[in-house]
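fyi for ur records
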Amino acid sequence: MPVVEDALVDLTEVAASPRPLTERAGELLARLRRIVPFDSAWMAHVDVLRGSYHTVSCQDLDQRVRDYLAGPGTADDIDAAGATRPGPPISTSDVASEELRTWSECLQPAGYHESLGVALYGSDRRHVGFLTLLSEDRQPPKPQARRALHKLTPLLADAIDPMRSLLPAVRLVQGATAGIVLRTDGGTQELPGLIDHELLQPASDVLRLAQHALSAKRLCTTFLWPMGGAHAPQGHVQITVLATADVPDILTGMVLISPPRNLRGLTPRELQILGLLVDGQSNAEIAYSLTVATRTVAAHIEHILHKVDAATRTLAAVRAEREGLYVPFISSVRVRRGHS
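which gave:
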């Protein structure tokens, strides 16, 4: 089998491997070098909302060049060169490179004379990132190199797609129909294959609760949320908050919505009280929070202990938190956050 075909097989295997994202990206560049020769390379994720790039991997770049490429000027130059759109790779000889500050201030002084750059769009046509292959040779890239890189672009994009690391976790939440990714800047991003939901809008209490759970460094948090009002006239949904891993730092966690599991016959009010027990509130504090009599709270707790098969309120709270069998009291979260 020819060397190029061997390299293509290797590249495909690396792209499909379960290795950590940065390790996988580094291996991709090493294998790609056998198909499309280059002296140095830079592969980055794009943050579409901010219009910036974050380094995923690079080959044979000194730290000064790496830092420059990850700066805001590079993003502006990529846009100015028309390299944010899906399409074939472009080289330095295709554009007025002297007008691009990244080229004149960084790459040329570092000894590079040619390059191939391409926007990384995955097989689902989402913009994932950008790849540039740098050359110290003064000759423009050969047509076969352009064609090969163009053909491999969807494979490379899918291989470094951050969502690839998130979707297996989504599948662990049985019946999840809606979900989003939370960002450190307070924004959200879509999760492929999941619909939007009214509870996932930026100002929703559910997202505030999710951000609170993530700021507390919890890997997984589940709770219930009433639909149609506090008395849940339309029933409950289950909310699952998962911290992210092996993705760009801008993405902090996922919020997923799924049907509730066994509610053990607990009423909407009992689920509310369980939320306050999880918060560690006393009967008197619960009565104050819900504007009811203390004896009413005591009666509810007696029913709760029976339904969750717990001998004490502490055990009931532990089981409720472990099973996500409670409705958080949003006001208590706001107070705690305000005092943090």
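The domain at 262-340 is CATH 1.10.10.10 (Arc Repressor Mutant, subunit A). thats all i got for now
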